[in-house]
Amino acid sequence: MTTLSDMTGLQVLQHALQNDTHRGIGHTMEFALVELEEGRVVFEGQPTEKVYNPIGTVHGGYAATLLDSACGCAVHSTLDAGQGYSTAELKVAYHRAMTKDTGPVRAEGKVVTKGRRLAFAEARLTDAAGTLYASATSTLILL
Question: Region 72-94: what's the mean pLDDT?
Answer without folding.
Answer: 97
